[in-house]
Amino acid sequence: MPALPEDLLDLIRELQRRVHRLSTAAVTRPALNTISGGDVTITDGGRLMVKDETGDTLMHIGGITPHTDGSPQQGVLIRREDGSLAFGIYGGDTQALTIWDRFGKIVVADDTVTGGLARPYVPIPLYPAPTPVTSTVWTRVLQGGMYLQHPRLAVGLWVQADADTTVEARVRYLAADGSTLQLGETATATGSAFTQLIVAPHGQPTFSWSNLYIEGRRTSGTGSAAVGALFAEGRQS
Questions:
Q1: Mind listing the pLDDT tens digit for each residue in 17-40?
Q2: What radius of gyration do the chain's Cα atoms show?
Q3: What is the pLDDT of residue 1?
Q4: DSSP state of 11
Q5: Highest mean pLDDT among 7-11, 25-29, 126-130, 171-175
Q6: Which among 163, 169, 157 has a CA at the least distance from the CA of 218?
Q7: Could you check whether the bond before residue 120 is cis, i.e. omega within 30 degrees of 0?
Q8: Residues forming a β-bridge with 155
Q9: pLDDT at residue 12 in the model
Q10: How far apart are CA 85 and CA 130, in angstroms?
């Protein structure tokens, strides 16, 4: 007599196979605190919260206080262990990105009206007018010191020379081993005046101290010549 699907023994064997597959899947399933090969999606005003052992919220991502017009607002709030607010993306209708110190003072924020930086206020240094250069040997006309916080340095060199007169300008900096190196190329002007941008990596350890020097020399002619700088700053790679 042929075996039939309704046969009791077949049904028992099929149940055994299914139970075995389920038990194997339970063993190989990732732990509930692990996400493997997928995403976590929170919708409809849901929130992701991280709380400390006392129940205070340290991180809040998702629905927060509504906008001024009453519409739902999604944002990010991160607090320190002492409860002080450290980082936030929320507020108003344009949502500023803000970083606070532990005393509640804003140390970094973006401008939500036109873009760019709102805090901190960045000073704009003023440099002396271009310095006359008459010597045929390299002469230092400007200098300053700084901690190297960016991998590259940028200097706007100003060079000016009368007709039939040539002037050269260069940027040099103090290396960690005590030597003085040139940054980028040399700017040369003959009967003209212009600003040349010098941008180059310095190759020194981050946060090491260095000095920056602007030097010039007149290489030909007897007319007036001058060298100066319009700006000097650090830049990213």
A1: 888 887 776 666 666 677 777 888
A2: 33
A3: 47
A4: H
A5: 171-175
A6: 169
A7: yes
A8: 198, 232
A9: 77
A10: 47
Q: Is the dihedral of CA 148, 149, 150, 155 positive or negative?
A: negative
Two structure tokens written together for 205: 């350890």
Q: What are 71-120's pLDDT values in tens digits?
A: 889 999 999 999 999 999 998 788 999 999 999 999 999 998 888 889 99
The dihedral built from the CA positions of residue 54, 57, 58 and 59, taken in this order, carries a sign that is positive
Q: Which residue has the tokens 């206020």?
A: 121
Q: Which two tokens stand for residue 195?
A: 């600003």
Close Cβ partners of 185 (under 8 Å, ≥ 6 residues apart)? 198
Considering the entire predicted model, what is its pTM? 0.68
**Which runs of E-coded beta strand occur in the chain?**
47-51, 57-64, 73-79, 85-90, 96-100, 106-110, 117-119, 131-132, 139-147, 152-161, 166-174, 180-190, 193-201, 209-220, 225-235
| Mode of pairing for the β-strands spanning 166-174 and 209-220 | antiparallel
d(CA 143, CA 39): 54
Among 116, 113, 112, 64, smallest CA distance to 85 is for: 64
Measured in Å, how far apart are the chain's first and last C-alpha atoms? 81
CA-nearest of 177, 179, 181 to 200 is 181
